[in-house]
Structure formats: structure tokens, C-alpha cells
Design goal:
65% of the residues lie in helices and 0% in strands. It is an all-alpha fold.
Amino acid sequence: MVRYSRGIQRLGQGHLELAVAEFVEAQRLQSLMVTPDPLAIQARGLQVQALVRMDDLPAAREALATASDAEREHSETRAALAAIQLAERDARGATDVLAPVLAGTVPIVSGFSVVNALLLDARARTMLGESSAAEEDVERALDLAEPDALILPFLIVAAPDLLQRHPRYRTAHAALLANILDVLAGAPVRARSGALPELTEALTDTELRVLRYLPSNLSAPEIAGEMFLSTSTVKTHMRHIYEKLDAHRRTEAVDRARELGLLGPSARPSR
């Protein structure tokens, strides 16, 4: 676990050779264990992706060749193969390999891997000129990352170009997207301080969905169009959100939601 965690940290920091060394050691330790550990599958997959980013495709293919037939069906191994195919400009092959992962029909070690697969698929769709499909992949990845304000999966794929092209006026995750882009640009991740305050009345699932559009520039009618709801319904949800957050304006509601951990905390320095 320690070696695997160090490998992920190094990969997120861009220290690719150090990441590969940690993943190799994690797999060596796995070979000494009586029972298999699923993290070894993920370690191999991330090792391959690090080697691809180092432009060492022969080593990447050699590492992937050590996977068993059963492991090759796992989401993590499929993502590793897709990374190689993308490096070889075989975008259609990558989408075919990733399709079962995105459909949820193959084994998976952690939800972290789905975000990884979505970003790889978005890159493949971009190469194929399928911009709408790429945007859907990125939005779905942000949706999965939003509850825990995850940033690390986006650093591992290192896809600032995908995120910069993502339409901020349409996303339901504008705050998280801005945070990720800030960190990719070199800004530190700011830790939350102290215990989070509590709401006297929890937001409903639909209210949470509306809330995630509030940091964007979308108007209420535009949010309604994105959510396939009527404008009056969205305005009603917004009114309830303001009441529950004890806010009087949209910006105040967004700030309050960040304090409560309902939206990703901004990594931008205060002005």
C-alpha cells in the first residue's frame, strides 16, 4: 500500500521515473504475498501509463505483457492498453478497449479508474473529431470527481488541453474545473481548515444538481435546458437552495456551499 500510494503521488507530481520505480516495487512485494491484492493490478496499469508519458512504448508494452488473461479484463489494464494505443495514434482501438469500462461491464479496482478511463476516452474522441462525445466524457469525469473534489485523476492523465476546451458556461462543475486547472498550472491545493458547518436542512438530490450549475454563467432558463426541467422548477429549487444555505444572492450561495463542502473549494487566492 505504501509503495502504491507513493507511486500515485509521484505520478501526480509528474515525477514519472520515480513513479515507475514505486509501482514496480509494489508489484514485487505483491509476488511475495500468499493471496493476490487488487492494488497490484492498478499499480501495473498506472506504471504502463507513466511509461507512455515517458514515450517509452516498448517498456510500456513489456510491462503490460506481464498481466494475466484475467487481469486484462480489468478496467485498469484496459485503460493502460488504451494509453498505448493513443500514443500510437490508434484512437478507434482505444475507444473500443474502453467501451466496456465506461459501460460498467468489466471488473474494476476503484472508482478512481473510471475517471481515468473517461479522460482517456475523451482524448481518443478528440483525435477522432468527436468533440461532443469528448465533452460528455469530461463532464461525466467531473461529475464522478465532484463529491470528493478529486483532482489527482486529472493530474495523472495530464490533460489540461481537454479541460481548457471544456465549455465552462455549460458545466455543472465550474468550481472543480477551475480548481483542477489551477493545480495543473502549478497552484497548490488548499486544505480545508476546521470542521465543516452543518445545514439545518439537507439539500435534495435535485437541489444539489442545480447547485453545481450555480458557479457557472448559465441563467436559470439555461440551467433548466441542461437539466430538462422547466424554468419555474429550477427557480423554485434555487429559492430552496438559498433558504437552506441562508443566502440572498447566487454568489453568496456558492460561497456558502463551498464552506459546507457541497462544492469544491476554490484553489484561487483570495483578493
